[in-house]
Amino acid sequence: MKKENKNPLLWQNFANKNNLSDEQLEQFKKYYELIQDYNKQHNITAIEDLESIIRDHFQDSLALSHFIKESDNNIKSIADVGSGAGFPAIPLKIKFKDLKVTLIEVTNKKINFLRSVIKELNLNNIETCNLDWRTFLRQSESDIDLFCARASLPVKELLRALKPNCLYKNSTIIYWASKYWQNQNLDLLKRTDFISKIYDYELDLKKRKLIFFSKNSN
């Protein structure tokens, strides 16, 4: 299933910006091809053109890279809540091959796509989980440092993981948000006991935020 990846300059700029090896860049190219092929029948993402996928999916997912890379954070495992087409977890897995990844997704067509990506990209130490969020919190016993949520569940629902009786109460939740997040979540902004930091970044002219939630934020 080898297709021409148009606009090599886009790919090279993406690789340079994220310090990707040749092998990692080839994995991203194959990932893009899989998205294009699968989208023809199953519509797993509304964004289809190469430039938008690189910027709005791949680069946006990798916004967390600096946090994972910092030695004092010691991040070894992540879970992607409502993984969909695999964002942000699969781009992060390509970047950090030793990262243990759990893809939480309940839709069968998306689970099948994720499994195809894992196989085609030859990714190890990564698995899919078809439990819904609340069931996952009640029944699973995975070793997870970070929960990642990008365009999936509302923050209030995600914060169930930090309840005192939950196995994952000491984990951190990372929420990808737009610049309008503060206007929409004023009630949550008052809960400073949960928000540990807010990281601002830009995708071209789009202003974005990573919101970090944890029980021990103070």
Can you walk through the features of this model?
By secondary structure, the protein is of the alpha/beta class. It has one domain (57-214): Vaccinia Virus protein VP39 (Rossmann fold, 3-Layer(aba) Sandwich). It contains ten helices and seven strands. It has helices spanning 8-18, 22-42, 50-61, 65-69, 89-95, 108-120, 133-139, 155-158, 181-184, 186-189; strands spanning 77-81, 100-104, 126-129, 146-150, 172-178, 195-203, 206-214. The protein has a seven-stranded mixed β-sheet with strand order 3-2-1-4-5-7-6, with helices on one face. Strand 6 (195-203) and strand 7 form a beta hairpin. It is globular, with a radius of gyration of 17 Å.
| Portion in helices | 40-55%
Query: What is the CATH superfamily?
Result: Vaccinia Virus protein VP39
List SSEs in N-to-C order.
Answer: HHHHEHEHEHEHEHHEE
CATH architecture: 3-Layer(aba) Sandwich
Average pLDDT across residues? 90
Give the number of DSSP strands: 7
CATH topology: Rossmann fold
What strand order characterises the main sheet? Answer: 3-2-1-4-5-7-6
Total discrete domains = 1
What is the structural class?
Answer: alpha/beta
